[in-house]
From TrEMBL:
GO biological process: respiratory electron transport chain; tricarboxylic acid cycle
Cofactor: [3Fe-4S] cluster; [2Fe-2S] cluster; [4Fe-4S] cluster
Protein name: 2Fe-2S ferredoxin-type domain-containing protein
A GO MF term: electron transfer activity
Keyword NADP included in the entry's annotation: no
Gene3D superfamilies reported for this sequence: 3.10.20.30, Alpha-helical ferredoxin
Domain Succinate dehydogenase/fumarate reductase N-terminal per the UniProt entry, residue ranges: 1-79
Organism, as annotated: marine metagenome
Family: Belongs to the succinate dehydrogenase/fumarate reductase iron-sulfur protein family.
Residue ranges annotated for the 4Fe-4S ferredoxin-type domain, each copy included: 117-188
Key words, A-Z: 2Fe-2S, 4Fe-4S, Iron, Iron-sulfur, Metal-binding, Oxidoreductase
One Pfam family from the record: Fer2_3
């Protein structure tokens, strides 16, 4: 597809604007929307795309969500690079590690290698349901890049980085929809990279209070009862001692009650049949950690 665009520019319209560089799926520069879906155009076959419509016409557009600069060129500075920069994607080598001896085990490199193969094509961001409504969210592309530095054992700013990533617009804005993973052509599974950062933040007890409490309460109630205790989740997300926050929940609780939804918290919340099996999954996971 990219070659076809080059040909059109050479032979028909020298003003046509689009991006593309490596022509081999490596640089992530040629992402566009083809037939309504994000595509790496240098890896997209014209013949195959033409067969998708009855008249053989291939609709091509700039990527969705970002501002268009010209024709098929989008503003990648705002949509992409500013966010990557906000994650501070450079390794700050711990000075205790010798200048000539940057130690990293093969196992750790293996874990990082997949994330390092990210071409920053932006397709995961294209699929992201949160970015679709809030462009300020860092997004799966930038967070996959952030995973690279967070997971590097040579870096001396581990906790500082996790704290940065768990602030507003960071990892806790992820809606767990797995769309980013579905969209990634490299099989990097950006959603799992975000979950990995979640786990690290929880382990280090960092980040924004509400999100952290929500995460912990969710897991604790499923562990205890085999299913979610919604009333407990609402209370604990606000914070047990936060009287003002809890009082704010009353109108919502009344509204839910009027519609027949009256969840009972804590010991009044019934245990699900099979809750012991669910608890054993938690226990196995806790031992593994
Ligand atoms: S994680 Fe995958 S989809 Fe997202 S920018 Fe990297 S290569 Fe593209
Ligand atoms: S031109 Fe580099 S990925 Fe398409």
């Amino acid at each position: 597809m990219l070659d076809a665009l080059v040909q059109i520019r050479d032979e028909n319209d020298p003003t046509l604007g689009f991006r593309g560089s490596c022509r081999s799926g490596f640089c992530g520069d040629c992402t566009m929307t083809v037939h309504g879906k994000g595509a790496i155009t240098c890896r997209t076959k014209v013949g195959k795309a033409a067969k998708k419509s009855e008249d053989g016409v291939i609709p091509i557009a700039p990527i969705k969500m970002a501002k268009v600069v010209k024709d098929l060129i989008y503003d990648d500075q705002h949509f992409h690079w500013d966010k990557i920069k906000a994650t501070q994607p450079w390794v700050d080598i711990d000075s205790r590690i010798s200048e000539h001896d940057h130690v990293m085990s093969n196992e750790r490199v293996k874990e990082l290698r997949l994330a390092m193969s990210c071409t920053q094509c932006g397709l995961c961001d294209q699929g992201c349901v949160v970015l679709a409504i809030d462009k300020t969210y860092l997004g799966p592309g930038a967070l996959t890049k952030a995973f690279r530095t967070v997971h590097d054992p040579r870096d001396k700013r581990y906790r500082e980085r996790l704290d940065l990533l768990s602030q507003k617009r960071g990892v806790w804005d992820c809606a767990h929809c797995f769309e980013a993973t579905e969209h990634c052509p490299k099989g990097i599974e950006p959603t799992d990279r975000i979950f990995d950062i979640h786990d690290k933040v929880i382990k280090e007890d960092l980040g924004v209070g509400g999100a952290k409490r929500h995460y912990k309460s969710f897991a604790a109630s499923v562990r205890a009862h085999g299913w979610l205790d919604e009333a407990r989740l609402a209370i604990e997300s606000e914070g047990i001692g936060n009287v003002k926050g809890i009082l704010k929940l009353i109108p919502l609780a009344l509204k839910a009650a009027l519609r027949g939804k009256r969840p009972m918290p804590y010991f009044l919340h019934k245990k699900r049949p099979g809750y012991k099996r669910i608890r054993s999954i938690f226990e196995k996971w806790e031992v593994k950690r």
